Amino acid sequence: PRSPADEAGLRPGDLLIDFGGVPIGGADDLVRLLTDRAIGVATPVRVLRHGAPRRLIVVPRESA
Question: Phi and psi (nearest 5°) for 20?
């Protein structure tokens, strides 16, 4: 609740397939993209939800 993912509309079971236009093959790919430059920047992401692609906007922030 109230996480950047939740605020962007991501749901349990969504499969992240790209972050800012960069394909995501696994968690390590996403971690590499979440740099200081990404914090606070509205970034488009694509997910698969029940097999259908969706585009959302997420604003990463530093973890507490």
Answer: 60, 30
